[in-house]
Design a protein that fits this description.
Layout (H helix, E strand, L loop, with lengths): L19 H18 L4 H22 L6 H11 L11 H15 L7 H11 L20 E4 L6 E5 L6 H14 L5 H15 L6 H17 L7 H7 L1 H9 L7 H35 L5 H12 L11 H8 L3 H13 L3 E4 L6 E4 L14 H6 L2
Antiparallel strand pairs: 1-2, 3-4
Helix pairs in contact: 1-11, 2-3, 2-4, 2-9, 3-4, 4-5, 6-7, 7-8, 7-11, 9-11, 13-14
Length: 379
């Protein structure tokens, strides 16, 4: 028996008490995010929003196995957000997901309706030429099955309601979504995601739209676009995500909601780290900008562009020479000077020497390259 065949469908059961502390943590982190944004300049705030939305657009697609061009998505987002008037040729898929994310961001507080879902679906399917219903619920007679395995060993791990039930199921879902705004944030967003996925109303794009609905629910609870980094965190552990979905076999969804709530909190932490990175890099640049030569300035800005993750394993002298065109001797002098100015800190020795942005100079290693632990960090 599939879950939608249960006599209690779609009345989900769960233990709300297991979410109580997580809901409090969500409220706390939401406040921290709002407070931190106040310390970010307007230009940095716009750049950060575009960065976070680009992350979500590319990662929600990657979860489904679709790899998009990040620069194209970002270019389309900037144009649609009114931050750029540059005319660029953006591929249909990248332009489509950017349109959907912009729509979600700008209309998060609007009630949900069929037309919103159809519009998102048209945007997601932009450029598709195969035979699927675009901007409409599925109507085919074939069962909508989620399968795993190869052709000779396929396993159906879920079958959605038949297409003739979809209009009624979606009316009920939309009514629930619009009437549930007073629910706790994580509870409502987790149910919205799962409920929509279980209906699976479209021929394709259900996962991406379900995650957009979760973001819409969180944004409505926060009273502003949530920008949680949800898809980014989910994509990092896709197997765990699909396992949590697959484990839902009955109306008791406590375990799913617990997984989802913890994932949202991890996503919030990711966003807070991104905000803090922007604040700290601004402080660093303001501190050293008048002391840098043109090569150093170019290298530091390039390191800023790498974001939170930075250069994998740190910036090497070879990286510096490629970025700036400096000779080995000049690169050595420039990098030593950047360490002296506390723009960078150094780890490792000899060919293992690596450099990192000194975002918190009071806590950074003092020429820690000679320490045993530092060398282990970059091996």
């Amino acid at each position: 028996m599939w879950i939608w065949e249960n006599k209690n469908w779609p009345h989900f059961a769960y233990d709300r008490s297991v979410l109580a502390e997580l809901e409090k943590e969500w409220l706390k982190k939401s406040g921290e995010g709002c407070g931190a944004f106040k310390y970010v300049s307007d230009s940095d705030r716009d750049a950060l929003k575009i960065e976070l939305i680009t992350d979500e657009a590319t990662k929600t697609s990657e979860i489904e196995g679709q790899i998009l061009n990040r620069n194209s998505v970002q270019s389309s987002l900037r144009k649609q957000m009114g931050l750029s008037f540059e005319q660029k040729n953006v591929p249909p898929a990248e332009d489509g997901i950017a349109s959907m994310m912009t729509d979600l961001y700008k209309s998060f507080d609007k009630p949900l309706d069929d037309e919103t879902l159809f519009r998102w679906h048209r945007q997601l399917m932009n450029g598709r030429t195969d035979q699927i219903a675009v901007g409409a619920y599925r109507t085919g007679e074939e069962p909508m099955q989620i399968v795993a395995g190869n052709y000779y060993d396929r396993r159906v791990y879920y079958e959605a309601p038949p297409s003739e039930r979809i209009p009624a199921e979606m009316r009920r879902f939309i009514d629930w979504f619009n009437s549930s705004k007073k629910m706790n944030a994580l509870e409502r967003a987790g149910i919205a995601h799962l409920y929509f996925v279980l209906i699976h109303p479209f021929d394709d794009g259900n996962g991406r739209i379900s995650r957009a609905l979760a973001e819409k629910a969180l944004s409505q609870s926060a009273g502003q676009p949530a920008l949680t980094g949800l898809a980014t965190v989910i994509n990092a552990e896709r197997k765990k995500y699909y396992a949590a979905l697959e484990a839902v076999k009955s109306p008791d969804i406590t375990e799913w909601l617990l997984y989802f709530a913890e994932t949202v909190l991890a996503a919030q932490e990711y966003t807070l780290q991104k905000i803090d990175f922007v604040i700290q890099k601004t402080k660093l640049y303001d501190r050293v900008r008048d002391q840098l030569n043109a090569r150093q300035d170019k290298a530091v800005k390039r390191m800023f562009k790498e974001g939170l993750a930075g250069f994998k394993g740190g910036l090497s002298a070879d990286n510096y020479m490629k970025i700036t065109g400096a000779s080995p001797a000049t690169a050595t002098r420039d990098l030593a000077d950047l360490v002296e100015k506390k723009a960078l800190y150094r780890t490792g020795v000899l060919r293992h020497t690596r450099y990192f942005l000194n975002l918190a100079p009071q806590n950074s290693p003092d020429n820690a390259g000679e320490s045993e632990n530092s060398e282990n960090n970059i091996s």
